[in-house]
Structure prediction request, 228 residues.
Amino acid sequence: MLRLSNQLGVGEATVKRWLAGKGLTIDRLEAMAQLCGLGLGDLAREAEETPGDLAHEMTLAQEKALSSNIFLSFLFMTILNGVPPTETAADFAVPARTMEAALARLERLALIDRLRSGKVRPLIDRTMVFRKLPLRSLFEQHMKHVFFELDYSAPETLYTSEVIKLSGKGVAQLGEAMERFRAEVQALADRDAEGAGADRRWVGVLSVMRELDMTPLREAGGDLAVWQ
Prediction:
């Protein structure tokens, strides 16, 4: 929004009104389309191709195919979060042929749609939840250690932790709160992409909860007599 207002020379409130279809003339629509590298014809074609409701969950076959290749799954996650494949290719020095093969694979899996303009859009809602085994296993194998081997004493590592008692209902509510937090993180990333330019780095955020094994604490409780 901020980038659009700066490039169009109007306030953010005006851009919001235009995007909502209020006061939007052909000239203004064409100006916004040009900022995206599109003409009005391209915009009309993309509007025609816009899918209806996005899927909120992948099929087991889709998850199995994604889990077969760590780069393929990572690429799809970046597309879900609005990062252009060209940017991902540049960040990781991915050859054009490799990127083309990966995008073609995602398209065959009905996970993305490639538009005439060259842009890529996901066919799965970004708020989806991984409920099946393949991608959870992929995370366990390739990503878990990235989070759990962090130096939590380092000043650049931001984290919070909490130990609480919850009923079954409370656990369900906490799960919903974690999903809302994920949506807030995604929205923050979208806003940041509008104004940060090239000054962005890859950041990992992990929210997790599970019932704690309190056995070590119970065993340690027997040593309290030593302190008395």
